[in-house]
Amino acid sequence: MRIAQIAPLDEAVPPALYGGTERVVSYLTEALIDLGHDVTLFASGDSRTRAHLEVAWPQSLRSDPSVCDPLAPHLVMLEQVRRKAPDFDILHFHLSYLPFPVFSQPGTPFLTTLHGRLDLPELRPVFDVFSEAPVVSISESQRAPLPSANWLDTIPHGVPASLLTPLPHVQPTYLAFLGRISPEKRADLAIEIAGRAGMLLKIAAKVDKADEAYFRSVIEPLLAQPHVDFLGEINEAEKPAFLSGARALLFPIDWPEPFGLAMIEAMACGTPVIAFNRGSTAEVVEHGVTGYIVGDVTEAVRAVAQLDGLSRSRVRDQFENRFTSRTMALRYLDVYTGLTVARHPPLLRAVAGVGHDGVLEP
């Protein structure tokens, strides 16, 4: 199958440091290639991939200070995709609703994976107008605010099985916070939980420009506490040691998290997750198996005391069963095939060219 993956331009694919959507696009792209498919990636020029790379902007927007309007490069990329659309069997966008006006017209089948929150009131009119636009959610909770959208499936994120693995020689001794410093991620609550549990907290997190004032006023004063170690951003190569050394990942979010990639990154390393019951967390973490779903700080502190009741090897097993990039890619191939069938029913096998296991047939 000839597949186009269209990524946001904010970060390279994959990002050098923090970046959720672009990282998932990278994992999906490489897994589809492993399954034998012909994949083209539309992304920034500093991206790294085994796919055919169509450079939509010379470098990621985060690393290009000359760009003041990030929408402009994305519109250029959409036109680039439109002109090349006949070369593909399926177009897979990761740009929220931006493709809807152009690609809802007859042509190459397309779908959009929605990676962000959908509870904003201004989104409902968009999905009412483009009610036929085919979309995929990354959790059931994410899609709840837009029940009438044209949902094709819910497909959880996946990470390559060999990318993040447990380091058995590392003794877990601290609690971890991984991701981004922002009001909704509540690093302040992670600091409080660790303090009340009497444990060291290591924070590996990015501070976006938009969140610098929040970081300076709310989080930075808390970092002077003796049980807090702020590491800043870490890269992919540093994550196995960071997560394997953690007794648990703290995920005390205060917003409707659409998925939460950090949770399955921790599980890949055999590290349990203690997550507040918001958004997708109860769909990702199996309470009492891969971690604990809690309601507040007090329950989280109690959960820390119960971590010895969890098997780290079982946490890793559950990751392998549910959240690998191969599993994600196979789920998407089912969606691609369904869209292709709807557009060209007699050509299913010739166009899709996939077997029941998702591997390209000769």
From TrEMBL:
Residues 171-306 form the Glycosyl transferase family domain. The keyword Transferase applies. It holds the Pfam family Glyco_transf_4. The keyword Cell membrane does not apply. Keywords: Plasmid, Transferase. One of its GO terms (molecular function) is glycosyltransferase activity. Residues 18-119 form the Glycosyltransferase subfamily 4-like N-terminal domain. It comes from the Bacteria. InterPro entries: Glyco_trans_1, Glyco_trans_4-like_N. This is Glycosyl transferase. It comes from Paraburkholderia largidicola. The lineage of its organism: Bacteria, Pseudomonadati, Pseudomonadota, Betaproteobacteria, Burkholderiales.
